[in-house]
Amino acid sequence: MNKTQLIQEIADRANGSRSEAQKFFEAFTDVVTSELKKGDEVQITGFGKFYVQERAARQGINPQTQRKMNIPASKVPKFTAGNALKDAIK
């Protein structure tokens, strides 16, 4: 399922318009993004938790040249599924 299909499915299940569903979906993604930028986490009980994980600097190998290269430290978004979501897909 892609973004367009997801928005259409939300509109269908909520008996709303596609434009309303898109507006709410974009608001949701904006809120999650801004909270993660601040370093906070977003926890939706039963669904899961969005959070930021820090990766340490490390050495890697360029696959084209086989030369060692330094990979800088970074922050990456992560998602952990909640128990209700895990149980629903068993």
Percent in strands: 25-35%
SSE class: alpha+beta
Helix-strand string: HHEEEEEH
Determine the CATH superfamily of the largest domain.
IHF-like DNA-binding proteins
Major sheet: arrangement of strands: 1-2-5
Q: Helicity range of the residues? A: 40-55%
Stretches where pLDDT falls below 50 for ≥5 residues? none
CATH topology of the largest domain: HU Protein, Chain A
Compute the number of strand runs.
5
Radius of gyration: 18 Å
Looking at the overall shape, the CATH architecture of the largest domain is Irregular
Choose one word for the global shape: elongated
Terminal Cα separation, in Å?
19 Å
The chain-level mean pLDDT equals 95
Largest sheet: 3 strands, antiparallel
- What is the helix tally? 3
Q: What is the highest CATH level, the class of the largest domain?
A: Few Secondary Structures
Number of domain modules: 2
Task: Tell me what you see in this structure.
There is one protein chain. Helix 1 packs across helix 2 (about 20-35). The longest helix has 20 residues, at about 20-35. It contains 3 helices and 5 strands, in the order H-H-E-E-E-E-E-H. A 3-stranded antiparallel sheet has the order 1-2-5. By secondary structure, it is of the alpha+beta class. The protein starts with a helix and ends with a helix. It has 2 domains: about 1-40, no CATH class; about 40-90, HU Protein, Chain A (Irregular).
